[in-house]
Design goal:
TIM Barrel, D-glutamate deacylase, alpha/beta, nine-stranded mixed β-sheet, about 500 residues, D-aminoacylase_insert_dom_sf
Length: about 500
């Protein structure tokens, strides 16, 4: 076990052997789906097979339950024990902030290690922070709160001069050398920038052998004056440079145009481009209210209204454009919800389903930090104290996806579900972080990051009005062989998370 105290670094690791007996083992790495035992030895899977003999191991009967590799979340802005505990209850064993990233990345890793984490963690190099440092003189501090505040600052959202471009590209290159897992590009927050800059980022990524993770700029259907269509831009850049380019939350950036966007990405993949895509099962996103795409005129272009915006910390639904402008000016970093699809409308629900069902689409949460109305920045209490708020995708993305795609519609088999939630996200990281090769599968030698779930009960419980309610149906969760959840109960003393770092060529 790990001996820890809340808020402190892990002090000692003791080797643990655990035998999971008689479960339905689903391994997307080998394609195996059948009844077997799984032996965990320390931080690795020692064996998978029938009637394994391990008298020195702690035995757990998992008959009737599904055993699979823990979910790997490529898109989590949760940098706290509290938020990661909610994600653990959703079946996640590795939570990575790759769309936005943090800078400086060495500080991000050091602070996470010092505080301790229930889940494995990692960060990309932050395109937004690098540009803000060069273009606006804003010194990054590896903090998600500061990052949200910067999103509404127009000084970094302009195009760069040639010297400025070189300066922030150099910062990104340095971050990659220090262990960043690629480059996170918040293009949607600076949508009028010169498309040549995006190509330069793609060339840097291709040269360094790392992926990019992009929140694309607006679509041409939404804003005909946009310099380049967001989905076309990522496809073209991947084709021209050979970079591995990941399209973040295609559901939220595409909205009612998801048919066309998915066709664009599919054509790019058929032509050999290294384009991947992710989605989550919600019709509302979450960001800072100062984001460029929440400006009233841009909302109108999307067919949305100020009332589509809800301020997270107060619950205020913005009444009109004047009030929205007032909030954006006073507190541009205030976290908010943006409703882009109506989950009660069958057509809109169909668009969400279509994004998840797209071939090889990866499930990723875009999990957001947990905020408390009393101003606290973190809590090590479990269950979480009352008054916390976040987006329900922090608590329920994976359980909701399994409920929708496996239990209710039968769109995916359990093998396909684990391929989307565990295997495919891990394989995206194989080149930049060879340690990822041990994740996303259950063969002997794989990392002992394992989820055991009840296939009949797995479901989300978080709602927009009560977003910190944990998912149901995760019976056991092992991170590096340490049981973080046992018999459905989270162990608040377990902080076994380890860094997943890039290894530059």
């Amino acid at each position: 076990m790990l001996l820890t105290s809340p808020g402190s670094v892990t002090t000692r690791r003791q080797r643990v052997r655990t035998l999971l007996r008689g479960g339905r083992v689903v391994d997307p790495g080998s394609g195996f789906d059948g009844v077997a035992d799984v032996l965990l030895d320390g931080g690795k899977v020692a064996a998978v097979g029938a009637n394994l003999d391990a008298p020195d191991a702690t035995g757990i009967d998992v008959t009737g339950l599904v055993v699979g590799p823990g979910f790997v979340d490529l898109h989590s802005h949760v940098h706290s024990v509290a938020g990661q505990r909610l994600q653990a209850m959703d079946g996640v064993t590795t939570a990575l902030d790759l769309e936005a990233g943090l800078m400086p990345v060495e500080r991000a890793y050091a602070e996470a290690a010092a505080a301790g984490r229930p889940l494995h963690y990692g960060f990309s190099a932050s395109w937004g922070a690098a540009r803000a440092q060069v273009l606006a003189g804003i010194e990054p501090d590896a903090n998600i709160g500061s990052g949200l505040a910067v999103l509404g600052n127009p000084r970094w959202q302009r195009s760069s001069s040639k010297p400025e471009l070189g300066a922030w590209l150099s910062l990104l290159d340095t971050e990659i050398a220090k262990g960043a897992l690629g480059i996170g590009v918040l293009m949607g927050y600076a949508p009028a920038t010169d498309p040549g800059e995006f190509l330069a980022v793609a060339r840097l990524a291709a040269k360094a052998g790392v992926p990019t993770y992009t929140h694309v700029r607006e679509l041409v259907e939404v804003d005909p004056a946009i310099p380049v269509d967001g989905s076309v831009e990522i496809a073209v850049a991947a084709g021209e440079t050979g970079a591995a380019m990941h399209h973040c939350h295609v559901n939220s950036t595409s909205g009612h145009h998801v048919d066309r966007v998915l066709a664009t990405l599919d054509n790019a993949r058929r032509e050999g481009s290294r384009v991947t895509v992710e989605a989550y099962p919600y019709g509302a996103g979450s960001t800072a209210v100062g984001a460029a795409f929440i400006e009233p005129d841009r909302l109108r272009l999307k067919g949305l209204r100020p009332s589509s915006v809800v301020i997270l910390e107060t619950g205020e639904r913005v009444r009109d454009e004047a009030r929205l402008r007032e909030i954006r000016k006073a507190d541009p970093g205030a976290p908010c919800l943006l409703e882009f699809l109506d989950e009660h409308d069958p057509r809109d629900r169909g668009l969400l389903h279509q994004a998840l069902a797209f071939p090889d689409a990866i499930v990723a949460s875009d999990a957001m930090p947990v905020y408390w109305k009393d101003g606290r920045a973190e809590s090590t209490e479990w269950p979480l104290p009352p008054g916390g708020t976040t987006h329900p995708r922090t608590s329920g993305t994976f359980a909701k996806t399994l409920r929708l795609m496996v239990r209710e519609t039968g769109t995916w088999t359990w093998l396909e579900a684990f391929r989307r939630c565990s295997y495919l996200p891990s394989r995206l990281l194989d080149d930049v972080a060879p340690a990822a090769r041990g994740k996303g599968h259950l063969g002997a030698g794989a990392d002992a990051d394992v989820v055991v779930l009840d296939p009949d009960r797995i479901t989300d419980t978080a709602t927009y009005t009560d977003p910190t309610r944990p998912s149901h149906g995760i019976r056991h969760l092992f991170v590096a062989g340490v049981r973080v959840i046992g018999d459905g109960q989270l162990d608040p003393e377990a902080l076994p998370g380890q860094p997943l770092r890039g290894e530059p060529k």
